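ASSEMBLY PREDICTION REQUEST
Request ID: AP-0331
Submitted by: J.K., bench scientist
Number of chains: four
Total residues: 714
Priority: normal
Notes: Please return the full assembly, not individual chains.
Input sequences:
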Amino acid sequence: MASAGGRAAKRTGGRAVEGAPGRGREAVTSLDVARLAGVSQSAVSRAFTPGASVAEATRERVFDAAGRLGYRPNAIARTLITRRSRIVAMVVSYLENPFYPAIVELMSQRLQRDGYHLLLFTSDTEAADALLLQLMQYQVDGIVLVSATLSSALARDCQRAGVPVVLFNRIATVGEVSSVASDNREGGRIAARALVGTGHRRPAFVAGLENTSTSRDREAGFREELARLGIRRYRRAAGNYSFDGARRAARRLFASGAPPDAVFVANDHMAIAVMDTLRHELGLRVPEDVSVIGFDDAPQAAWDSYRLTTIEQAAGPMVEATVAMLLEQIADGAPAARRVEVPVRLVVRDSVRGLAG
Amino acid sequence: MASAGGRAAKRTGGRAVEGAPGRGREAVTSLDVARLAGVSQSAVSRAFTPGASVAEATRERVFDAAGRLGYRPNAIARTLITRRSRIVAMVVSYLENPFYPAIVELMSQRLQRDGYHLLLFTSDTEAADALLLQLMQYQVDGIVLVSATLSSALARDCQRAGVPVVLFNRIATVGEVSSVASDNREGGRIAARALVGTGHRRPAFVAGLENTSTSRDREAGFREELARLGIRRYRRAAGNYSFDGARRAARRLFASGAPPDAVFVANDHMAIAVMDTLRHELGLRVPEDVSVIGFDDAPQAAWDSYRLTTIEQAAGPMVEATVAMLLEQIADGAPAARRVEVPVRLVVRDSVRGLAG
DNA sequence: GTGAAAGCGCTAACAA
DNA sequence: TTGTTAGCGCTTTCAC
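STATUS: Completed
Returned structure:
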């Protein structure tokens, strides 16, 4: 009854709505709690603010009143005044590549741990501009761009507008914006060494999207190490990071004479497509006739039907670095613009002939 | 200069901050735009509100001024007053099962189309209570619960608190809350018919989590149709919707004499684990020695290494129904509490012996 | 440690 | 159609 009375008398302005049955249940506000607890609204605010200076007794009375009223602070109102939403946006191009769901899950959990929330967007290039603008409207505290195809310029604009941006698995082509990526070049080198070291002499490469730094760096490392080991030429085809694209790439690679004896594929998702095409369409055995090596260490790479040898991207450390940088920038407001490069390592399974487990 | 003057004179309260270089770039507000355009703040608001009554000339002047200032409406402030955040929360237990990333992607795109945004949470039971409370604090307009293990009671509480909830791929055990799910029972029946109709006589079932409606309904339909076709008994084991759990289940099923000649698995992710275990660990051929039938039609089911015959869940229609119900509830405030059941169908591939493509 | 007052940026009556 | 006014629910000086 105390609460009911409080509610009715609540409106202070001129045309009070006295009960206002129109809109349905109204929210319980900090003012309601304050009245029931017999303290000021500020006291309620302080009671719910971790490091604030409130007497233990006051805090208890507030919590008690809040409990009875079923009060929950309104994060939106708080955001409006503190200018911190505790929301981080993540833009991801597509979730078809199984490496990304894992990243999303990790990121979500990592952010939840710090009291942040994840606003998820899926987009390929086209609608991206409009999207980022929307993000800004939501006062997100930071943005993680996973989408390989979004323009760096866009990212820079956000950064300039005061919203920290971290590029994930992708290098900035403009300065100012931070990024976290694997040591893709070294990954390519490792792949080359693994193949050449086991006697392969006609390697091929299946690229992702040609305009992405990941695909380019992986290939650059591969090419470079191949050359160092005396192999100056290799066949190549682009799979554009799509499953069917990779299947087509595999067909092209093996269409003409002197087929490759090994294929390095820019990610596991495509590598699996390549393996399937080799085995079930082209009648080739992996690894007996052709070796295949992937990139990511996606869950599927470990499945018995593939047992794909691959370059592992350290998802955990990558996510950790991303969140750390983001939170740091949020706290300091410092533009920083750092580039983190996470080490990769070879995971040996059964898709490369002659490589010991 | 007009804008600069506007900025400096902006603070209306007593202790004006005159320039305030402390905090860094301040946001451009609708008031700034109003001043530059020489109109009232309301006019700016109207110009940015789709159906509002503004003269075309006014709108243009506002947009012009907004453009020069780089103004973007503050969605948070709008939410505070309209009480509509245009944010929908989605709680998903884990993204390991490849069916779910597809759902997340579809849902995200579908919501974006209607100007809504997706706040993503990952959680298994434990932290769920705390989670939902947080959601409420963010004034989300609706919640989609995909997590199979979250309690229905929790969902009901949200619903009661005025936030529309739709259970996805999961039936409510309490009334009041809406749900969208496949016709799981019929799916089970179809699986039974497919198996028995092709001469299988020793079927088995690999369950998901025993306490989920999906797994139970799929099994109930399977059992029921088996019985109708004269098969009263079948072996069963629980895989708990995990890959390794399914592998263990497969081992158990085939450990003792008179092994099954067919396995119906509660989802594709587990079905793939079962196939791999059968083929690569137990030395059995699929479908020659054992037939396998799954549920979902996840992308991986179509991969050449599996060619899994499965019961398709119509992801598109399910998402469509979910969003439609949610938006309807958001608009009407109607509790509705409907139960949508989406039809399933058999997708024939090569994992069931004797079933024609 | 606590309360009063001001105001975050916006929209929604109401009056003109 | 437009401007004026009063808040949405919260945090934050400032004074005590």
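REVIEWER COMMENTS: The two ends of chain B are 73 Å apart (CA to CA).
SIGN-OFF: pending second reviewer
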